[in-house]
Amino acid sequence: MDRVALKPLRRFAVIFLAGAIIATVSSCTREERKKEEQKHLESMMTILVQVQKNLGRIRQKEAVVVRLSSDVEGRKPQSAEQIGKEINSNIRFIDSTLSASRNLVTTLEKENHESQYRISALDRMTGQLKGELDKKSLEVGAMKGEIARLNRSIARLTNTVDVMDEVIDDQEAQMVKAYYISGTIDQLVAKGILLPPAPFSRFLGAQPVLAADFDIRPFRMVDITETRDIYFDKPVSRLHIITPHTKGSYTLVGGKTSALLLIRNEAEFWKKSRCLIIVVE
User: Fold this and answer.
1) Which superkingdom does the taxonomy of this entry point to (predicted)?
2) In the beta sheet, which residues pair with residue 182?
3) Separation of alpha carbons 141 and 96, rounded Å
């Protein structure tokens, strides 16, 4: 076969190979896009489910407050005082959970708006959640008004100025305190929280090592009964929890610029360590 006859065949082979390469690249791109879209959806749904759980918790606590306050004025002073403390504790829980839920909805809205895989249905759901949280805030406000009236009654029974706002003693306060900090390895080493890494340890994949004793003053203090989410202005992929915390008691979610640590079970999460240390890559 002469050279003239081979030229059309060569052109056909080149065109065929180019087409196959384009099809392969396009297929890979579609697969990667599908995975990113699925990841975005799962992150958004995790936050959405958490808000719904928070609303369920708020409704449960509201029912408890209603039950406790129904006959508090007919109780003995000591019993009424204890009920007052329980009501106050439940009100604090409701307030903190409402605040946490608003933060979650704000994060949900922001992440969805900024994502290239924005889901319009989530925008509508976010609006509905905002409306539900606003309505719940009004209900809680009305409940606080009723609690204030009960508070005056309990104060008369117990001869105190305000039983509902009685200061918790130091021992009780210590029981609900926890601490957290985040930073790069170098930052945490400088604060004496991590031991200086050995030469080449980072290249060998060695894990950061906690100092035997460190000062908790650089940490942020939280109340474990009121803290159900912690915000970080770094993506999930750059955050690594190095302190021991029970699996299943928390989830890290977020997008490309920020992340949320959702604490699902406060008692389990803080049981192994009252200090949360997160290394930022």
Assistant:
1) Bacteria
2) 278
3) 14
